[in-house]
Design brief:
Blueprint: H1 4-13, E1 16-21, H2 28-35, E2 41-44, H3 48-60, E3 64-70, H4 74-88, E4 93-97, H5 111-123, E5 128-130, H6 138-152, E6 156-160, E7 184-186, H7 197-207, E8 213-216, H8 220-228, E9 234-236, H9 244-254, E10 260-265, H10 266-271, H11 274-282, E11 287-293, E12 296-297, E13 303-304, H12 312-318, E14 323-327, H13 330-342, E15 347-352, H14 368-379
Parallel strand pairs: 1-2, 1-3, 3-4, 4-6, 5-6, 7-14, 8-9, 8-10, 10-11, 11-15, 14-15
Antiparallel strand pairs: 12-13
Helix pairs in contact: 3-4, 3-9, 7-8, 7-13
C-alpha cells in the first residue's frame, strides 16, 4: 500500500496536472488527494467516455492527463479510445481499478469484467501494468508508462488492485451552484423555411472572429465544415460520436482565455447529454456550444432522433449554462452568436435546421493526427511550438 502523494507527486514533476474520471471505491483516496490540491485539476465526468473526451481536449490545450475509472467503465471508454485517441494520436494515463479480480471476492456484477480486464486492454492495444502498491516500484512504473506514451502517442493503463492506496479523507467542499438561467426561444420559421446544415455552418463562420478554436462533431457536420473552409483552427471529430462537447470543455478548461466553439448535432448531443451537466457545473466562461438540430441522423440515412421532444436550450439552462437560447432564423442566429461571443459563458445555442446536405459531399483529406498537429500549432500547444507562434487567445469579454 502506498500514500496517494507517492504517486501523484512524481507525476506532477513530469507535468501531469489534469485528472478526469468517474469514481470507484478503490480510487477514493487517490481522487480525494487530487481534489484537495489547489494546483491540480480534477473533473468529475458524467461517464467514463466523457472523461476520455475531456482529457483529449485538455491534451490539445497542452496538459498531460490522467483518466480514472472502475474497470466496468472501460465499456463506456471503448468508443472514444478507439475512434478518438487512436486516430488522433492522443495519449492519456489510464488508471483502471480491478473490481472482480480473480481470487478476490466481489459483487456479481464485477465477475465477468474482472476476468477480462487485462484481455480487454490488450484487445484495445493499450499496454498495461499493475498499479504499484509498493513505493519502490513507483518510479519504474511511471517511467515505463511515460516512455510508452511519449513514443506511441497513445494511452497506457495501470490496473489498480484493492487496497493499493492508503485512505485520504476529502477536505475540500464543492463550489456553490450558480443561479438558474432562463432559456430564450426564437423559433420563427416553419420547418420547410429552415436552413440546411451547410447554410447554418456558413452563417456561424460569418459570425465568428476567426480566432476561435472550432470543434465540429462527427458525421456530415465536420465533413461540410471541411468543404466550406478548411482552417487550422478547425478540429473535425471524425469518430467518438457525442464527444465533441467534452473535447471542447476540456480545451476551454485548459486554456481559459481561448474562445472555444463546439458545433454539435442533435443525435450526438443526445448520446452524451450528461456532458451538458458537467459543463454547467464547471462553468467554462469561454465556451459556446451550438447544436444544429435537424431531428435526424442525417449522416446515416435520415433516421429520426428523439430531439423533437427535447428543448436543448431549456436543458442547458437547467444544468447551469449562463446563457441559452433557441433560433432558426439566420439573422437571429447571427445576432445571438455575436451576443454570446462577447459575454461570459458557458452558452448554448440550439438551432433548428432541416435535413439535407450537398450532393457528392467529400470527406476531410487531412488525416486526423495531422488535423490535431496543426490545431495544436494554431493554439501554440504543440511540442516545440511557443505560444507566441500560435494564436493570441482573446477572451469573451
Amino acid at each position: 500500500m502506498i500514500q496517494a502523494a507517492a504517486f501523484i507527486e512524481p507525476l506532477r514533476t513530469l507535468g501531469y496536472t489534469q485528472y478526469a474520471g468517474v469514481p470507484c471505491s478503490y480510487l477514493k483516496p487517490f481522487i480525494n488527494r487530487v481534489i484537495d490540491d489547489p494546483n491540480l485539476h480534477y473533473i468529475g465526468a458524467a461517464s467514463e467516455g466523457e472523461a476520455v473526451g475531456i482529457n483529449a481536449g485538455a491534451y490539445l490545450g497542452g496538459r498531460k492527463t490522467v483518466t480514472l475509472c472502475q474497470n466496468s467503465g472501460l465499456g463506456n471508454m471503448v468508443n472514444p479510445l478507439t475512434s478518438l485517441n487512436d486516430p488522433f494520436r492522443i495519449p492519456t494515463l489510464l488508471i483502471v481499478t480491478w473490481r472482480g479480480e480473480p481470487g478476490r471476492p466481489d459483487e456479481p456484477q464485477h465477475f465477468l469484467m474482472g476476468q477480462i480486464t487485462p484481455s480487454l486492454l490488450e484487445t484495445l492495444r493499450i499496454p498495461w501494468m499493475p498499479f504499484p502498491s509498493d513505493e519502490a516500484r513507483v518510479a519504474d512504473t511511471i517511467a515505463r508508462a511515460e516512455a510508452s506514451m511519449r513514443d506511441r502517442l497513445l494511452p497506457f493503463a495501470l490496473v489498480m488492485s484493492e487496497g493499493s492506496v492508503a485512505a485520504h479523507e476529502l477536505r475540500s467542499r464543492p463550489p456553490a451552484p450558480c443561479a438558474r438561467t432562463e432559456a430564450a426561444s426564437h423559433f420563427q420559421l416553419e420547418p420547410r423555411q429552415r436552413m440546411i446544415r451547410t447554410q447554418a455552418l456558413e452563417a456561424i463562420l460569418e459570425s465568428l472572429a476567426g480566432n476561435e478554436a472550432v470543434i465540429a462533431t462527427t458525421g456530415k457536420t465536420g465533413r461540410e465544415l471541411f468543404a466550406i473552409a478548411d482552417r487550422p483552427n478547425h478540429l473535425y471529430v471524425v469518430g467518438s460520436m457525442g464527444a465533441a462537447s467534452a473535447i471542447g470543455f476540456g480545451l476551454a478548461h485548459a486554456l481559459p482565455r481561448l474562445p472555444v466553439v463546439v458545433i454539435d448535432g442533435d443525435g450526438a448531443a443526445l448520446m452524451k447529454l450528461g456532458a451538458l451537466a458537467t459543463i454547467g457545473c464547471y462553468q467554462p466562461p469561454n465556451l459556446l456550444h451550438i447544436i444544429l438540430d435537424n431531428e435526424s441522423h442525417d449522416s446515416t440515412g435520415g433516421q429520426s432522433t428523439a430531439s423533437p421532444v427535447v428543448r436543448f436550450a431549456d436543458v442547458a439552462a437547467a444544468t447551469g449554462y449562463r446563457r441559452a437560447a433557441s433560433a432558426n432564423d439566420p439573422q437571429e442566429m447571427r445576432t445571438l452568436i455575436l451576443d454570446f461571443r462577447r459575454l461570459p459563458g458557458p452558452s448554448l445555442l440550439h438551432i433548428k435546421i432541416r435535413p439535407g446536405s450537398p450532393k457528392h459531399l467529400g470527406r476531410p483529406t487531412v488525416q486526423p493526427h495531422e488535423v490535431k498537429d496543426r490545431f495544436m500549432r494554431f493554439l501554440g500547444t504543440a511540442p516545440g511550438v511557443s505560444p507566441e507562434e500560435g494564436v493570441r487567445p482573446a477572451g469573451f469579454l
